[in-house]
Amino acid sequence: MQSLRTIGVFTSGGDAPGMNACVRAVVRAAHAHDLEVLGIRRGYEGMIEGDIVELDGKSVSNIVQKGGTILKSARSKAFRTPEGRATAAQQLRRAGIDGLIAIGGDGTLRGAALFYEEHGVPLVGCPGTIDNDLFGTDETIGYDTALNTAIENIDRIRDTADAHDRLFLVEVMGRDAGFIALNCGIGGGAELVLIPELLTDLDDVKRKILSQMSSQTRSSIVVVAEGDELGGANRIAEALRKDPAFDPIDLRVCILGHTQRGGSPTVRDRVLASRLGAAAVDALVEGHANVMVGIVNGSIVLTPSRTVWSRRKSIDYDLLKLTEILR
Ligand code: ATP
Question: Are the CB atoms for 315 and 177 separated by under 8 Å?
């Protein structure tokens, strides 16, 4: 095996709070192993263009608390092509990079697995996505911060919903997964939670909202994951407004959108990102390739990249039952 001298690190896909803490951990842990670190800017797009900068210890000072990513992120169409990946491999060779650490979501790891199979550059992934939809880790970097941002907003919406006896459909992020919606639903005392993992029956939704609003309270909050198969909060609101039973109800939609991506990471995300970044360096040094580092039940685990994106992480169905009991 070729000995490892220079590591390249990049952030890719949607940005997530805590990515900077992870980059910092990668740089500092690599230096502790006497490795050099180069930062690849704008994910796979920057890799193809050779947008590569040196990362010394100082360059990652004062970033542990910052949201976004100092390396910037991108979604790259070119990397989806064999030609794009070949150019990326050439750029890495030119820069002397002999191991990679990717911080991103399942798309990033899909690309990474292909890249390893085609070009053999050892790569360790760190799970960085607010959606928490990655198999092989209990939590992903950014998820806890996104949850806390969403819950803060839901609490605010609760105040106005209550003051005006309104029904609010609050849409949170989660294209394929309901982790944010489910946990915010419980933490924010939502009357109903709609997630992509379960078929949403519109008649059932109407029945539950109407009984709720006519009995215990006259305000209500429904948390909707953006990937709910009825099509998100706006589409559901449209369908409800067509029903005359909803005429007397003051129905509003609030889409939390990108507010959930930004902001300073919570301490939980900073610690998670720091542990994962350092563990990713250890994994590369130990000769692992084409794996993702995660934390399961408090311990670092390595999962083959292919397993990460080919297996679906399940939501906690006990939590779903709890939303029914507590509403
Ligand atoms: P998030 O969960 O926040 O969206 P992600 O990592 O899943 O993060 P994607 O945009 O899906 O974000 O993937 C990041 C990048 O990975 C893509 O822009 C693309 O360059 C690369 N990628 C994704 N899927 C593939 C694939 N099947 N083949 C090659 N490259 C891919």
Answer: yes
The mean of the pLDDT values for the chain is 94
pLDDT higher than threshold 60 for residue 1: no
Q: Whose CA is nearest to atom 13 of ligand 1?
A: 107
CATH of domain 144-261: 3.40.50.460
Verify whether residue 316 is a known catalytic residue: no
How many whole angstroms from 165 Cα to the centroid of ligand 1?
42
* Residues flanking ligand 1, CB < 6 Å: 12-14, 44, 75-76, 79-80, 104-108, 110-111, 114, 129, 131
Contacts of 149 (CB under 8 A, 6+ apart): 256, 259, 260, 262, 263
- For the domain spanning 6-142+265-310, the CATH number is 3.40.50.450
Which tokens in the block code for residue 15?
């940005």
CA nearest ligand 1 atom 10, residue: 13
Q: What are phi and psi of 65, to 5 degrees?
A: -95, 0
Which ligand 1 atom is the nearest neighbour of the CA of 74? 18
* The one-letter amino acid at 22: C
What's the pTM? 0.95
Going by alpha carbons, the residue nearest to atom 6 of ligand 1 is 105
| Rounded-to-integer distance, Cα 62 and Cα 72, Å | 16
